[in-house]
Amino acid sequence: ADRYGVIGNPVAHSKSPDIHAAFARQTEQALTYERLLAPLDGFASTVRTLIEQGFKGANVTVPFKLEAFALAGMLSERAEAAGAVNTLKFQGGAIVGDNTDGIGLVTDIVVNAGVPMRGKRILLLGAGGAARGVVLPILAHAPEQLVIANRTESKAVELAARFAGKGTVAASDFRSLQCAFDVVINATSASLSADLPPVPPAVFGEGCLAYDMMYGPAPTVFMAFAQQHGAATRDGLGMLVEQAAESFQCWRGMRPDTRTVYAGLRAKL
Ligand code: ATR
Predict the structure, then answer these.
(1) Which residues form the active site (predicted)?
(2) How far is the CA of 127 from the centre of ligand 1 (A)?
(3) 234 pLDDT band (50/70/90 cuts)?
(4) Which domain holds residue 200?
């Protein structure tokens, strides 16, 4: 069986082994997928050991996505745009880096939630690594406008400028957000500490979907706030399953059905 795994620190909490085991059963692929704890100062040597052991690829999670980007000898366009790598493919000694987080988010919104982005107004909250990873896949759906809003406005300005050639992207601080959006995506790390990014309620337009990249057994504070102001909400569990499916496709050349795997994970949260 071909070997894969997820490299992180910590990694014990990762759901990726369960997800990929389910994908492998479903598609009858002979593969194993392990949790791989790398020392904080030992990401590159961990990857080299995996290659020596004949691993075919790996996912990369916190805090190694930037190091994976630096280590990869070849990068997909979307990894280049994201500035981070969550998927490594080992090809005869070469290390190919990809990033499936952004396409995972967009697939969960457009396909699973059934909310189109084409011609719509999209608001992205945050300008860190998580936000950067999703900009190009959002712009690929040709929204009317993407606004990136961040607490530190200069970082939103920088991020918007980076993608200026790829679509209609603007930057903002939170306070100046006055108009309504069709989709509002929380890519800040505020939910981690149960904080609410200070968005004015006016951003939640008629029929708005408010999406939090975080997930858990209960709605996040952002989702609760959005619900109070009339928005439909969705958490990031679907993004997790879809990014895994995209990595699986990158390695195995086939796309698993994500619905049953998503339902199984949801039931166990
Ligand atoms: P990640 O990789 O999760 O994106 P990051 O690169 O450290 O982490 O970025 C964190 C993002 O969450 C930033 O946009 C940060 O805003 P600043 O650039 O102003 O720091 C945002 N963030 C974190 N806590 C927040 C809070 N309580 N309210 C609003 N934004 C917050």
Answers:
(1) 65 (proton acceptor)
(2) 7
(3) very high
(4) 115-234
Pair (26, 39) in one structural domain: yes
Q: How far is the CA of 60 from the centre of ligand 1 (A)?
A: 20
Q: Is the minimum distance from the CB of 126 to ligand 1 under 6 angstroms?
A: yes
Environment class of 233 (CB within 10 Å of its CB; exposed 0-12, middle 13-18, buried 19+): buried
Catalytic residue among 56, 65, 166, 268: 65
In a domain, 208, yes or no: yes
Overall domain count for the chain? 2
- Single-letter amino acid, residue 87: T
Task: Please confirm, yes or no, whether 65 is among the known catalytic residues.
Answer: yes
- Does 172 belong to an annotated binding site? no
Looking up tokens 């708005």, which residue turns up?
208
Q: Is residue 108 part of a domain?
A: no
pLDDT of residue 93: 83
The DSSP element (H or E) to which 233 belongs, if any, is strand 232-234
Neighbours of 207 (CB within 10 A): 12
Nearest of 44, 45, 59 to residue 4 by alpha carbon: 59
Instruction: Among 151, 172, 214, 225, say which to mutate for ligand 1: greatest number of ligand atoms within 8 Å of CB.
Output: 151
Ligand 1 midpoint to CA 150 (Å): 8
Predicted structure pTM score: 0.96
Asked if residue 168 and residue 244 are part of one domain, the reply reads: no
For residue 127, give the ligand 1 atom closest to its CA.
Answer: 14
Q: Is the CB of 150 under 6 A from ligand 1?
A: yes
The answer to whether residue 193 sits within a structural domain is yes
Domain check: are 21 and 79 in the same one?
yes
Tell me whether residue 256 is in a domain: yes
